[in-house]
Amino acid sequence: MKLMTLLLSFMFSSLLIAADNYDNSKLFIKLKKGQALPSHKLIKKAKFLFGENYLVETPNAKELQDELAQNKAVLKTQLNYKSQAQTMPKVKRAKDNAPMDFSQFFNDPKVGRIWSFRDSNDNGVSVEKSYLSPLNVNKEEIIVAVVDTGVDYNHEDLKNVMWKNTNEIEGNGIDDDNNGYIDDIYGIDPLSDDTDPMASHSHGTHVAGTIGAEQNNGVGIAGIASNVKIMAIRTVPDSSDETDADVVESFLYAAKHGARIINCSFGKRNNEGGMIVNETIDHIGEKYHTLVIAAAGNDYGRNIDTKLVYPASFPSDYLMVVASTTKSGGLSWFSNVGKKNVDVAAPGSDVYSTTPGNNYGNMSGTSMASPTTAGVAAEVLSHFPQLDAVSLKKVLMDSVTKVSKFENKMASGGRVDLYQTLVHTLNNLDSILVEQETRTNNK
User: What's the pLDDT at 93?
Assistant: First the structure.
């Protein structure tokens, strides 16, 4: 009965697209090649994004859109749509009274609660095996942007792995690096139009810990990635009603400031036909070699090949989409699927990680499977930083632990595996790089 009620609620809500489900103060404008942004009384401020794309501020976006419809310089426009409010995953107390022993390679006292560290044969992603059998190569520091509800950058297990903008002087009220943001030390907060991405909800902090909580510091847990910096970007409100403009701004900021991976544990069921977010993912993938890793969504097994969700259903080659699995190895009951649009699966049920205020707890969702994959991706990239976004995505997909029941649920038919990906990449690096160079030269 409870599941039926949830399904009916989802079906009903998916039919209701509010007529005013957009921010009427902003409008995306894409110009035809070689054209200049037209002047108009309703354009009060314009910001160049990339290519021919601009974001303008206006007192009436819908009126401006209508008036630009016949303008010969304008290719298309897009309203700044919102995601619509959704319930975020909640923190739960850990119930595992028999934590695993990972003390051979981690001294973090609570790391044994992270079941995803187990070997692939035990439904994990082989973190333990990877650290017990290292490749013995130098690892490069990788920046991962957590585009989410903000991150508690003072958390005992995160404060030493937070990315900091070294070109900015903290607290002087000056845009020292001339990047358009004042005192953006840890990242930005487009929601408040400022630069303090401190957590407003536990979600983003939990995501950050899964990716890169400090290892072997004698407190808390350990993240999957061993040489990582977490860039905090507060884009998602506590109600999850993020806008396209905030997502685009966040992705561009992250890539321009060195993030090779962006974790995107959010989404919406309706896109209203706009492609600016997809174009942004393509742009940062091509120019900055940034891979966006996104949650498949938690709509009770929805097939996102036919019932699209965003950004997970976007067609970008620089986007990797993740379903969620359980301790027993099956798909989580809530996880979306899609033979075409979902790439891999990863542990996402009952994931133990950091929460604000030096706390820890369990959360479940594809929101947790995505950072598990992002952590794996960051560890792989630290070993092989010469991989571009497409190559990184491919080696992760080529090295999954196959699960027969996943064959028609996702493109790879399996769960991400850190150890297998490291070994596969090491053994095939020359051919991977030749293929990468050929692909680049053919663009």
Answer: 73
Beta carbons of 284 and 257 less than 8 angstroms apart: no
Please calculate the CA angle 174-283-367 and round it to the nearest 5 degrees: 85
Which CATH number belongs to the domain containing residue 384 in this structure? 3.40.50.200
41: containing domain = 21-81
Residue 251 exposed, middle or buried by CB count within 10 Å (0-12, 13-18, 19+)? buried
247: helix, strand or coil: helix
Residues 268 and 308 in one domain: yes
Picking from 64, 81, 98, the residue at the C-terminal end of a domain is: 81
Q: Is 311 exposed, middle or buried (0-12, 13-18, 19+ CB in 10 A)?
A: buried
Q: How many residues does the chain have?
A: 443
Same domain as 131, residue 72: no
Which pLDDT value is given to residue 4? Answer: 38
Tokens in use for 324?
């969620």
Residue 369 lies in a domain: yes
Q: Is 234 helix (H, G, I), strand (E, B) or coil?
A: strand
Residue 153's φ and ψ, nearest 5 degrees, are -75, 0
234 lies in some domain: yes
Question: Is residue 60 located within the same domain as residue 147?
Answer: no
Number of Cβ within 10 Å of residue 33's Cβ equals 7
The model's pTM is 0.94
Across 45-58, average pLDDT: 98
H helix or E strand, kind and range, residue 321: strand 319-325
Tell me, yes or no, whether 292 and 434 share the same domain: yes
Q: Which residue has the tokens 């959704």?
A: 86
- Give Cα 330 distance to the centre of its chain: 23
Once rounded to an integer, what is the mean pLDDT over residues 299-316? 95
127 and 57 part of one domain: no
Over range 397-425, report the average pLDDT: 98
Edge-first strand order for the sheet with 291-295 is 187-188, 228-234, 142-148, 259-264, 291-295, 319-325, 344-347, 414-415, 401-402
Where are any strands of DSSP class E within 159-311?
A: 187-188, 228-234, 259-264, 291-295
Token pair 């190569």 is found at: 137
Sequence-ordered list of residues with C-beta below 8 angstroms from that of 327, at least 6 positions apart, any chain: 115, 123, 347, 349, 350
Per residue in 103-133, pLDDT (tens digit) is 888 999 999 999 999 999 999 999 999 998 8
Report the Cα–Cα distance between both ends of the chain, in Å, rounded.
53
